[in-house]
Amino acid sequence: MSHVVVIGAGIVGAATALEALSAGFRVTILEPGDPGGEQAASYGNGCWLSPMSVIPPSVPGLWKKVPRFLMDPLGPLAIRWSYFPKVAPWLVKYLLAGWTEPKVLRIAQAIRPLLAGAPALHKDLAARAGVDRLIERNGLMYVYEDRAQFEAEAMAWRVRRQVGIEWIELGPDEMRQKEPELDRRYGFGVLVEEGGHCRDPGAYVAALVAQAVAEGAALKRAKAMGFRIEGGRLRAVLTDGGEVAADKAVICAGAYSRKLASQAGSDVPLETERGYHAMVLDSPTGPRTPLMPYDGKMSITWTDRGLRCAGQVEIAGLDAAPNWKRAGILRDHLLRSFPNLPRDLPAERVRFWMGHRPSMPDGLPCIGPAAASPDVLLAFGHGHVGLVAGPRTARLVAAMLTGGAPEIPVDPFTPARFA
Ligand SMILES: Cc1cc2nc3c(=O)[nH]c(=O)nc-3n(C[C@H](O)[C@H](O)[C@H](O)COP(=O)(O)OP(=O)(O)OC[C@H]3O[C@@H](n4cnc5c(N)ncnc54)[C@H](O)[C@@H]3O)c2cc1C
User: Fold this and answer.
1) Using 50, 70 and 90 to split pLDDT, how confident is the model at 40?
2) Run of H or E residues at 236
3) 297 or 135: which carries more pLDDT confidence?
4) In the prediction, which pLDDT does 233 show?
5) Whose CA is nearest to atom 19 of ligand 1?
6) Whose CA is nearest to atom 35 of ligand 1?
7) Can you tell me the distance from the alpha carbon of 84 to that of 63, in angstroms, rounded to the nearest whole number?
8) 307 φ, ψ to 5°?
9) What pLDDT score does 62 carry?
10) What is the pLDDT of residue 157?
11) Which of 52, 99, 122, 258 is deepest in the core (most CB within 10 A)?
């Protein structure tokens, strides 16, 4: 039986392990931490299963804000001065990727098939692991103070419409009925019914990995360090605990994948867009539907662990210490959005977390073979949409492992686009 080594147990690795098992492979998962643990972006994200997240982070005119990104360390997007020289080439590619509306539309057209139908795919995967209650399919909502604010984002909604996304617009009265606890300043809502959310992404990923193990996968607590490739064929994955003989390997190490990809011959511009969450434990109030207030650009979602507010983009690399003031901003936004939250929340009822989005400059993941061997596949770089895109990515990887036809076009995701 052909042996696949899956490197990394975030959502992408966990889903890939299960799909590889279904495709008849022997599977080993390499993960130095706990599957779905706090080290993984998959643990602390906003929980959104948002098939409408097709707009890349870089949009026309963003370049004008670069000075602000550098000057305001607490703004919704901030670049650390000390990291700027290192990130500058990536930043140029990032700004160019969303330079014009037609470019944004092309990215949206490429990524929409990766996201469409995702809540149903998650539901199936969760059911396989006996945790289908963790996936909810009751829509997602963007909230604005008024219609004018919504119209200020006309380009994004126009592009969403062009790729087939539908929504329902809610006026002040409907908003009040739907979200009675939300601050009254939000008088306009956009409900996307095809969206869903995960009640606890960390527990979900852990359950998927446990299911893979129950179905015969091996979980090895080790860090992948490189590959032994001979004559273009993979022989083994090198780890800090010795070699693991392998016929195929899939790099799913999220933001930590760049060196591994380079070991397999693919130099791809993977960066980390760091993000934060603030979570209130035992919250007495919150939204009925997960929502994203326009002014905060952060998602607010009930989870099994508490009321979570997630967001922020900080470009500072993998190694810099977290700036917890950023998580404090998220907590304060939560307090402003839900007036019934106690103002004097004791510190032990608030949890802060920082994680690393694995981000390509063009807003599209890398899914495809490495340059040095067709036996090594890259499956990372999902940026802001890795949770929602995990299951479809895994299905594409399984098709690539077996030589089958992928169910959606994969050319836009080829790692070779950066060669
Ligand atoms: C604040 C925030 C909010 C977000 N909100 C959303 C959202 O609402 N919806 C959404 O779809 N996405 C969201 N995202 C993005 C999403 O969380 C990520 O894109 C996704 O989790 C990436 O999954 P992954 O499996 O590629 O990587 P990860 O989850 O980071 O997992 C990678 C794993 O690889 C392991 N690893 C690292 N190096 C090695 C090695 N050498 N060998 C073996 N294993 C290794 C790590 O320990 C880790 O467990 C958000 C991200 C952040 C930070």
Assistant:
1) very high
2) strand 233-239
3) 135
4) 98
5) 386
6) 8
7) 14
8) -90, 115
9) 85
10) 97
11) 122
| Mean pLDDT over each residue of the chain, to the nearest integer | 96
Q: Which domains does the chain have, with CATH numbers?
A: 3-60+106-418 (3.50.50.60)
Beta-sheet strand order (sheet of 224-230): 224-230, 233-239, 242-245
**Side-chain half-sphere CA neighbours of 140 within 13 A:** 24
User: Which tokens sit at 3?
Assistant: 């042996």
Probe residue for ligand 1, chosen from 260, 333, 387 as the CB with the greatest number of ligand atoms within 8 Å: 387
Each residue's pLDDT tens digit, 54-71: 999 898 988 888 888 888
Please name the residue that has the structure tokens 């002014």. Answer: 295
Joined together, the tokens standing for residue 250 give 């899939």
Q: For residue 398, which amino acid is it?
A: A
Each residue's pLDDT tens digit, 71-108? 887 888 899 889 999 999 999 999 999 999 999 999 99
Q: How far apart, in Å, are the Cα atoms of 17 and each of 65, 138, 193, 380, 402?
A: 41, 28, 30, 14, 14
* Residues in a beta bridge with 46: none
Least Cα distance to 326 among 342, 346, 309, 341 occurs for: 309
Q: Looking at the DSSP assignment, which residues form a beta bridge with residue 303?
A: 306
Q: What's the average model confidence in pLDDT over 3-25? A: 98
Which residues make Cβ contacts (< 8 Å) with residue 363, sequence separation at least 6?
56, 57, 58, 97, 98, 107, 111, 383
Tell me the best of 382, 388, 392 to mutate to test the pocket of ligand 1, counting ligand atoms within 8 Å of each CB and taking the most.
Answer: 382
- Ligand 1 centroid to Cα of residue 186, in Å, is 31
pLDDT at 279: 97
Question: For ligand 1, atom 50, which residue shows the shortest CA distance?
Answer: 45
Task: Ligand 1: list residues with CB < 6 Å.
Answer: 7-13, 30-33, 39-42, 45-48, 223-224, 252-256, 275-277, 299, 310-311, 355, 357-358, 380, 382-388
Whole-model pTM: value is 0.97
The CA 181 to ligand 1 mean position distance, Å, reads: 31
